[in-house]
Amino acid sequence: MTGALLFLITAFVVVDVALAVAWAIAIRRRAAGWRPSAGDLAIGVGTCFLDTLGIGNYAQITALYKFRGHPTDELIPGTLNVGLGLPIFLSATLFTTSVNVDSGLLLAMVLSAAAGAWLGAGVVSRMRRRTIQLFMGTALIVAAVFFTLTNLGVLPPAGTATALSGWRFAVAVGANFVLGALMCAGIGNYAPSMALLAVLGMHPLVAYPIMIGSDGVLIPVAGLRFIRSGRFSSPSAMGLTLGGILGTLLAFPLVQTLAGHLALMRWVVIAVILYAALAMLRSALGAGAAGRVPAAVES
Predict the structure, then answer these.
(1) What are the beta bridge partners of residue 233?
(2) Residue 37 · residue 239 · CB < 8 Å
(3) From CA 108, how far away is CA 99, in angstroms rounded?
(4) Using CA atoms, how far apart are residues 228 and 30, in angstroms rounded to an integer?
(5) Cα(94)–Cα(207) distance, rounded to whole angstroms?
(6) What is residue 157's DSSP assignment?
(7) Which DSSP category does 162 fall into?
(8) Residue 186, SS3?
(9) Which of 106, 197, 217, 237 meets the CB 3.0–4.6 Å disulfide criterion with 82?
(10) Beta partners for residue 202, in sequence order
(11) CB of 180 within 8 A of CB of 67?
């Protein structure tokens, strides 16, 4: 294990321990409910299973939350980032230690994504409800476009590189900063990351440790900001955490086996994403210029 990879694994552990401690303190101080329902757990298992296969889960979780009517729109970004911290820690550790990729590039992209998540979460947690709805609805449509282009074969063919240098290195690191910020608005980084790295000539498998490794730091970093603001649903987040760990463990051994079926699964995902986007935008247009909602943990 290289020094850069050891540093990265250590960073995963530090930020996730900080997230768990901060969450426990928030639950105790606010005396809010935290026990997840069976539906919360099922969402965690199913969506994190897909996430580990490389399909992503932010848009799917958002769609399911919209379908059942809770958490409310302004609490969804925080619930995603708080609840997925520990499952993504497990996934990131598995992928970064099992797939060969340049450790310097991996570390640089993870750190840039974490910086974007920290700044992005600060902006999203102060947004008005209607602004969040509009931003998330648009973000979901963008995600659907990326998935559609992937299924139709429009995206450029993948290369074979496992490292980048020069301007390609700079573009990859800079773009990952932006993707880290967008994660806080409910758009996953998987499809954009796959497209970016394919354009830059990297092997498709290399995208997994980079995109999931980035999430291993940026999701708990963003989650810490949302815990401070109180804008998340603790029961729903706990369902993502407990169910997500199980879903990740079930899916990881199947990454290679089920790779040939991902295209069909993505078509289903596209339909779900578009439903969520239209529902979110309809809510925003119907609400008008709603005022800012006080920060509170939803029980």
Answers:
(1) 298
(2) yes
(3) 17
(4) 12
(5) 14
(6) P
(7) S
(8) coil
(9) 237
(10) 161
(11) no
Confidence band (pLDDT; 50, 70, 90) for 6? Answer: confident
Q: What is the pLDDT of residues 136-186, one digit of tens each?
A: 778 778 877 877 887 787 766 556 788 898 999 999 999 888 887 776 665
The average pLDDT across 250-254 equals 87
Is the distance from CB of 45 to CB of 202 less than 8 angstroms? Answer: no
Among the residue ranges 36-45, 54-63, 97-106, 166-175, the one predicted with the least confidence is 54-63
Question: Where do we find the tokens 């497990």?
Answer: 90
3 state SS of 127: coil
Helix ranges restricted to H, the chain: 3-30, 38-52, 58-68, 76-83, 85-96, 103-124, 129-152, 166-183, 190-199, 207-229, 234-251, 262-287
All structural domains of the chain with their residue ranges: 36-287
Preceding peptide of 71 cis, ω within 30° = yes
Amino acid at 130: R
Q: Which residues contact 14 (CB under 8 A, 6 or more apart)?
A: none
Q: How confident is the model at residue 299 (pLDDT cuts 50, 70, 90)?
A: very low
273's tokens: 């994403």
What the block records as the tokens of 260 is 């040939």
Q: Alpha-carbon distance 276 to 67, whole Å?
A: 8
- What are the distances in angstroms from CA 238 to CA 11, 72, 131, 232? 22, 16, 26, 11
11's CB contacts (< 8 A; 6+ apart) are 110, 217
Nearest to 240 by CA among 31, 65, 10, 28: 65
Q: What is the pLDDT of residues 177-215, one digit of tens each?
A: 888 777 666 566 776 777 778 778 887 777 788 888 888
